[in-house]
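Morning F.,

Quick status update on the modeling queue. The single chain you submitted on Monday has been processed. Sequence for confirmation:
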Amino acid sequence: MRLDKFLSGALQIPRSAARSLAGSGRVTVDGQVCRKADTPVPEGAAVALDGAPLTREEHVYLMLNKPDGVVSASEDGRDTTVVDLVRDAYPRRELFPAGRLDKTSTGFVLLTDDGPFAHRLLAPRRHVPKTYRVGLDGPVTNEMVEGFAAGVTLADGQTLHPARLQPDPADPCAATVVLTQGVYHQIKRMFGVYGLGVNTLHRTAIGPVALDAALEPGQWRPLTEAERQALFSPVR
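Structure tokens below.
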């Protein structure tokens, strides 16, 4: 990798600015001042700016708490997107949501620029579970719990994979739903079979990784190394 490309990725600056920075004499590679932007940076080389070490992650993995009204897309002509919420911090990255939530749904959205990883995470054969907290306009019944476990047959005749429905003992109109399948408006359509409407839907976990409770709507943070490894494990 060229030095200017390394600097651009590590500092999230345009390539032209990275070339100027390389020529300033402030950058070292393995302890040696390097002024040429096209200098190759070997794998594992120690790059520093003004003596401070620089690292360049090959890919970005972000946990975002999606607010209501934001669309799960990279770009949209009318509405704010999940990528818009992090764009200032990652202007040089081509980020996208690995999986979607409806505009009115909230919670955990994973943003990344790692296409192969996202493809594996979303592949139907992987059955990576996703967990949701739902608020309903009526109480959950044992019939629904058993129906979800058996696999709900939608109004169009499609029979879904078994899902887990866990009623909230403190609120008869709230529950946790765990899905291993991704179908358009799936949770709303599943409860619709039983005549219930979904008032709120909040994703709380993807696979074994739970949404950080400290993140307010619209806030985000990079996944920790442990979280990344936990997500990578079920999709390899």
